[in-house]
Write a structure and sequence with these properties.
It is built from 6 helices and 28 strands. The chain has 400 residues and is mainly beta.
Length: 400
């Protein structure tokens, strides 16, 4: 195994010598050479008329290994050599040149990426790629997820409650107090996982850059979401939201269980999670993961809710949601259809940013399954969820 890992690293290193690297921005290039990587020379073999077209052999690419998408550029139906065009990618709001040796595109981070090429004075069409984690991430291996009761299917179900909030939201303390009261009730706390999406103001130290609020139809703050399915904006009533929780818990049968093993590598600040999903019903399943951080201290705006909100400690904050099925769709990565009693595996690899404190972080793993809503719309609400530390394991949970 060590030799195989070593060979894999060597192969990856060799390929990365010709991988994508960042260069000039689009605006800088427009002010410089008006040509491709060949210096804009008018090559006789390539027509001066006709459409400039960018294509790729695939749009789903695994990161962190040796996978890549092979780009092909044609002008007027004639292929343009990779040495003669430039590749640009939208990065942090800017269009930046990236060097793709031999037309091999290797995205550097998970998520969606858009690229286009520049040849002579023309710009091609844009291609959108989805960068995913490796099927078998390199580095640390947490091992298989546990399954000590392979014949049992009576899984315990937990509701995933997402609190949409922000440090500049004056009415959010009212919802925080409501949720604190709700979580004091064992009938709720033992059957729920509470996370907080700080999406209200960008200067919030717990601000979540992902568009989770837009994906779940959140337009006002505070909002409490149940299972990526239903929203509540009533922030001052414990009984009202407790009733919504009970309805969410009983709304649907548990259709699958989750077990997972996690391992945090402090050298790379990467947590790797090996998750297993077992089906109680034959369904299509999706799976996602959230990195959660506690103990984020920041003063909280307050419009009259009781309590001390200066240097308030914010817990359960979502730092990253690894489950973007499509643009602004966080229902998880597809596992396909799983037969009753059968399992499917998925591995996540999440890199912690430098300002995220690993000792205050943990994980939430959730699964979604399709439901027909109002006899027409097909949705993927959360059906079950678990939580576990950055290094640890969680077996399947059963009702008895």
């Amino acid at each position: 195994m060590k030799m195989m890992n070593y060979l894999t690293v060597l192969a990856a290193a060799a390929l990365l010598l010709g991988a994508c690297t960042k260069g000039l921005g689009w605006e800088e290039e427009q002010n410089g050479n008006q040509g491709g990587q060949g210096g804009g020379q008018n090559t006789p073999d390539i027509p001066t008329t006709g459409e400039l077209v960018l294509t790729a052999d695939k749009t789903d690419v695994e990161i962190g290994g040796v996978d890549f998408a092979q780009l092909t550029v044609t002008k007027g139906g004639v292929e343009v050599p990779a040495s003669m065009y430039k590749v640009y990618e939208a990065i942090d709001g800017k269009t930046v040149e990236i060097k793709c040796s031999e037309g091999k595109y290797m995205p550097e981070s998970m998520g969606f990426h858009e690229i286009k090429v520049f040849f002579r004075t023309e710009v091609s069409n844009t291609i959108r790629f989805r960068a995913k984690r490796q099927s078998t991430p390199s580095g640390v291996d947490p091992g298989p997820a546990p399954d000590d009761n392979s014949n049992k299917l009576n899984f315990k179900r937990r509701v995933l409650m997402i609190q949409f909030t922000g440090t500049n939201c004056g009415y959010c303390p009212s919802m925080i107090n409501t949720l604190n009261s709700m979580m004091q009730e064992p009938s709720i706390s033992e059957n729920a996982i509470l996370v907080a999406a700080h999406t209200y103001n960008e200067n919030d130290p717990a601000f979540l850059q992902q568009n989770l609020d837009g994906a779940l139809g959140v337009s006002g703050y505070p909002t409490l979401n149940f299972d990526m399915y239903a929203n509540s904006s009533v922030h001052g009533s414990v009984s009202y939201n407790a009733d919504l929780f009970n309805k969410a818990l009983s709304r649907v049968k548990v259709r699958g269980g989750i077990s997972a093993v996690s391992l945090y590598d402090s050298a790379t600040r990467t947590v790797t999670v090996s998750a297993k999903v077992k089906a109680a019903e034959e369904r299509d399943f999706r799976i996602g993961a959230m990195l959660i951080e506690d103990n984020i201290v920041a003063s909280q705006a307050n419009n009259g809710a009781p309590g001390n909100w200066t240097n308030f400690v914010h817990n359960n904050s979502i730092r990253y949601c690894d489950g973007e099925y499509a643009v602004s769709d966080y229902t998880g990565y597809s596992l396909g259809k799983i037969a009753v009693g059968e399992t499917a595996d998925y591995t996540f690899a999440i890199k912690l940013k430098q300002d995220w404190k690993a000792e205050d972080c943990r994980l939430v793993i959730y699964i979604t399954t399709p439901e027909i809503i109002n006899n027409s719309s097909r949705m993927y609400p959360v059906n079950n969820a678990i939580t576990l530390p950055l290094t640890g394991e969680k077996g399947f949970e059963y009702t008895e």
